[in-house]
């Protein structure tokens, strides 16, 4: 079965069958969660298009486009919902990225709150972005014979886009918050 080569990072939190099959099985409500996430990314995409300059938001627009396509496939096919759930672990770090932006806008860079958030942001970045994306890439590679070629191509392109983007953002965060 698909997914038997490795253990899901969310095995104990979600659904035991998920660690065995990220393609065809998912916990109750998971399909709805992924569908709502597609809606969020679509809304945020349109909001950025309407309210931000392209040179300020092109990276996020690109990111959102990749997520919308990949999650959209999972929603439409009712397949790979488990894989999309693993991908949503990345968004846990978004809490601290957004709090960082709020603190920057409030000019609270030189506060204990900002410093603490910077440390938590980096820690959650490594765990929920870098490690999750690495795990997803590994899973995709190990399960390539069980994934249809078109889906494998979309997944591979998605990971090839998201991983470098996240490494670059990690470098920017390190440089900005720790190596000024």
Automatic annotation (TrEMBL):
It comes from the Eukaryota. It comes from Smutsornis africanus (Double-banded courser). Keywords: Membrane, Transmembrane, Transmembrane helix. Pfam families: TRAM_LAG1_CLN8. GO terms for biological process: membrane assembly; phospholipid homeostasis; plasma membrane organization; regulation of membrane lipid distribution. It is a multi-pass membrane protein. PANTHER family: CT120 PROTEIN, TLC DOMAIN-CONTAINING PROTEIN 2. SMART domains: TLC. The keyword Transmembrane helix applies. This is TLCD2 protein. The lineage of its organism: Eukaryota, Metazoa, Chordata, Craniata, Vertebrata. The chain crosses the membrane at residues 58-77, 83-99, 119-141, 153-174. It is found in: Membrane. One of its GO terms (cellular component) is plasma membrane. InterPro entries: TLC-dom, TLCD. Residues 1-180 form the TLC domain. The keyword Aminoacyl-tRNA synthetase does not apply.
């Amino acid at each position: 079965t698909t997914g038997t080569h490795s253990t899901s990072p969310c095995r104990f939190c979600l659904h035991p069958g998920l660690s065995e099959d990220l393609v065809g099985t998912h916990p109750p409500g998971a399909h709805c969660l992924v569908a709502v996430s597609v809606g969020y990314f679509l809304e945020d995409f349109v909001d950025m298009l309407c309210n931000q300059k392209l040179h300020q938001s092109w990276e996020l627009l690109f990111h959102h486009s990749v997520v919308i396509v990949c999650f959209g496939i999972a929603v439409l096919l009712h397949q790979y919902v488990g894989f999309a759930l693993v991908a949503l672990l990345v968004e846990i770090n978004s809490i601290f990225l957004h709090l960082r932006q709020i603190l920057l806008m409030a000019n609270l860079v030189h506060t204990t709150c900002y410093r603490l958030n910077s440390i938590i942001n980096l820690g959650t970045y490594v765990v929920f972005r870098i490690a999750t994306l690495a795990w997803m890439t590994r899973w995709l590679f190990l399960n390539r014979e069980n994934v249809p070629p078109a889906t494998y191509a979309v997944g591979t392109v998605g990971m090839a886009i998201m991983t470098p983007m996240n490494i670059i953002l990690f470098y920017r965060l390190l440089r900005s918050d720790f190596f000024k």
